[in-house]
Amino acid sequence: MQIDAHKRSLAEVLLQGQHIIPRYQRRYAWEPQNIRDFWNDITTSKTPHFLGSMVTSGVTTAPREVIDGQQRLTTAIISLCAIRDLYSEYNQQLKVTGITEYLEYRDRNGEQNYRLKNKDRASASRLNDNILLPPGRRKQAPEFDSESLEMAAYKEFDSLTRKALEGVDDVVQRLDEIRDSLLAAEVVYINVEDRQNAFTIFETLNDRGKSLTVMDLVKNMLFAEIPSGDEDSSERAWSQILQVIDDSRFQGINPDSFLYYAWNSRSNPNVSEPEIIEQARLRRSISQRVDCSEDRAAASEQIVEDLRTDARIIECLNNTLINDGSAQVWKEISSSWRRDKFDDICEHLYGILVSGSMQPITLLISLMRAYTCEEQKLSRSQLLRFLRIIERFQFRWSIAQKSSTASIRGLYRQAASTVSARQSSSDVERAIADFVIASRKLDATDVQFKEGINRLTYSKTKKKNLFKIRHILTRIEKSYNTTKLNLAKGSSIEHLHGLEGRSEATPRNSWIFKLGNLAIIPPGINSQLPAPFPEKSTELKKFINSEDIELSAAIEFKDWGPDKANLRLKAISERSLKIWPKVDAN
User: Fold this and answer.
1) For the segment 349-392, what is each residue's pLDDT rounded down to a tens digit?
2) Which H/E stretch holds residue 151?
3) What global pTM score does this model have?
4) Contact, 194 vs 223, CB < 8 A?
5) What is the DSSP string of 93-115?
């Protein structure tokens, strides 16, 4: 292993030539507090500040790939740009030229290049158009983004530097001192020509202190196997995976949890009985898959591509949830998309996801991948039947507030593996049958489900249950023979007895915040309704279903209170049992 390891100043590092940040690296993530800490370390140290280690890969005469240190290197470039622009304000053109040498250089062909280059286009635009361009040209750039974290870091460093110049007799000399402290900061600069060994060094250096994430370790392992000349498509795929994770609104989704759900959604050909692959074993499991392959590079590239597919499924599931079950979100991923093929599927997907549990994600990835992406497509009828069963089980479980157990995770893992490994429709039938048998043993009882519905509350300060409550009331409305509402346009929650002056902490007011006192009405109507029930009864009558017997009668007599609300709550819980009955095979 040829290792070049030396202590170098930041100035020496930048003047090495060009450093390349590959696409698989995460986007720039330093917040203003990180910049303030960086500033304080640089400007208060009496000796050159030690920035830690950097690991790069590449031959001496070529641009080097940044394996570790991209956040610090990007921050240094941003800081130097802020100093450059302040020199310009003080008409110090020679010093602007001097500092530009650390930001740009001319290659042997005389062409201008940046010292730091992002292979990811979006990251390159945020750095090049937002930071590296002089202020006068910056806002004219087509990709200018004033809200990017790179720009936030620039503004923070600019602000800190300006404060340091206040009241100083010689501001240029003070700027020189800040510049020199930054360029004198030191790193242990490690370059390894062989990419695989560079990843090994990186992991060894990070084996102390804050541990690398499982996703980091898997990324290093996979890209160490992919030849440096062939990694472009895999880098793009990894960048897209990280983008999906960053954009996801699923509570609890991060790189490691994504990897857990994605990997457990697939069958493992090396084991006879599928078992849950816990976080601590993910890297080993993925490594074993590579080790068992005749072509390690091809296997690594395929795993990256498979993870990108699963990330796209996660993205569509996320969009299904935040768009209230919209079928449109699957259009780009399915080659045979038609609205009528996805409307009812998305209705059931939404019913599962709105429960707030992430446990079903493993199976949902497997099912939707089989329906949208794989050559041997899962039939629509089987998918619908499976989703109906999952929805019944998961919604009852979540409303009953039964705690998560290994049995539930194992249930979803087993089914996901069977679907992933299926050879024929009979394999899917077996997965459905096994799921039904196992879920019956774990299912919430009718009493537990009803008690869970009775506990649900919603107020302006307690919005956690909003989407579950709206979903229950919407599904009940759909179960009636007719409706006065256009449910396609969404709905709002109305407290039939107003909240004004009612404390949530007072036990006698508890009924006001429960389902019995809540109704769905068209969006935007709430603000127009008076608070007292008798006064808004006439308007409510336009929207309330006649099959909602307790509320309809109260509207006729313009009389509403806790007794009637409790009777309505009981009717809601009884009807919910018919909508979400215990799991069966249909």
Assistant:
1) 999 999 999 999 999 999 999 999 888 889 999 999 999 999 99
2) helix 149-165
3) 0.74
4) no
5) HHHHHHHHTTTEEE-TT--EEES
Q: Are 99 and 87 in contact (CB under 8 A)?
A: yes
Rounded distance between C-alpha atoms, residue 455 and residue 449, angstroms:
10
> 527 vs 181, 466, 498, 523, CA distance in Å?
59, 18, 12, 10
At residue 401, what is the residue type? Q
Q: Nearest 5°: phi and psi at 51?
A: -90, -5
CB 508 within 8 A of CB 471: no
Distance (Å) of CA 491 to CA 522, 538, 540, 565: 5, 19, 14, 20
Could you tell me the two tokens for 206? Answer: 């990070």
Phi/psi region, residue 524 (left: phi>0; alpha: psi -120 to 50; beta: rest), is left
Tens of pLDDT, residues 67-93? 888 999 999 999 999 999 999 999 999
Residue 24's nearest CA partner among 265, 199, 208 is: 199
Q: What is the DSSP letter of 514?
A: B
Among candidate residues 203, 232, 225, the one with its CA nearest the CA of residue 23? 232
The Cα–Cα gap between 117 and 127 comes to 9
| Mean per-residue pLDDT, 148-165 | 93
Work out the burial of residue 483: count CB atoms within 10 Å of its CB; fewer than 13 is exposed, 13-18 middle, 19 or more buried.
Answer: middle
- On average, the pLDDT of the chain sits at 89
